[in-house]
Amino acid sequence: MITLPARPESLTFAPQQSALIVVDMQNAYASQGGYLDLAGFDVSATRPVIDNINVAVAAARAAGMLIIWFQNGWDDQY
Q1: What is the pLDDT at residue 73?
Q2: Structural domain contains residue 10
């Protein structure tokens, strides 16, 4: 079992029965030189989010957890 400090209370879970889900972290939306940056949007606030996701992924890997990456995609029929 692993316990993570959190608010309003800590969270305890079994890593073998859990997964870390990372949703839609794509260069096009979250990095300099990506689509949003080139379109004139400020993407500077994404750096701390990316850093925190990297910490979470490293911890999940160290615990042997499943990591699921979701990516936005488009169907030609959409």
Answers
A1: 77
A2: yes
